[in-house]
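User: Transcriptional regulator, IclR family, Pollutimonas bauzanensis:
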Amino acid sequence: MDTSDTDHTEAGPRTLRRGLQILRTLQENSESGLTVTSLARLTGLQRPTIYRLLAALVEGGFARNVSGSKRFMAHRNSAVPGVDQDPRIALAFPVLQKLAMLTGDAVFLVVREGHESISLWREIGAYPVQILATFAGKRQPLGVGSGGMALLAKLDDAAVEDIIARNSNRLEQYGGMSAREMRQLVQNTRTRGYSVVGNYAVRGALGVGCALCDARNHPYLAISVTAITDRMPATRQREIAHLIQDGLKTIADKI
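Assistant: Predicted structure for Transcriptional regulator, IclR family:
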């Protein structure tokens, strides 16, 4: 039974034990995932506690929401993505690994869903200071991050304006982003051939992103690399963009 924490000296260890209990239960039921109701039944914890701990596990990249459902699964950050995941992950995975190794920074696979972007995968580089700007399963307005901006800039002007309008009431939450700044970033991305977005989704971070379109010229996926701003002078931005573009060419041959 889930009781309130009355002893503050025990609160931290108790929370950790409960979080690990949820994670272990998800790992033991990895084929189909579990709903919060199922987790409550299996662990004996109350649903508000489970929701709170699940949010922390998802944010930390240890668990993920199964797209289009109320189920959660333990996140597989293993050598090879799981077969149940979005096929774009398996396509991009070797490129993501190589980019993380070459740059030392965090690399993200991002896709578009309507007026939002969704992060599908994150690879962490070896540099000691990492900007973990997002995590698998996280949604945000399309364009506030470098991967989402790369996708947004591939759309026609009418679609761009529609998406900006749909997200207008949320943009200010991202470093004071405005519709005017969003339009300017789209133009900059089209001119440059890759996106550069800094200090919006995460303060002190700068990301470089490139997008790949499918045979119908629809944005299919984007890859971005994010680091602390000091590691991202203009020359390195260009170098990273070229590395991403080279990687996207290998993916394009497979779709």
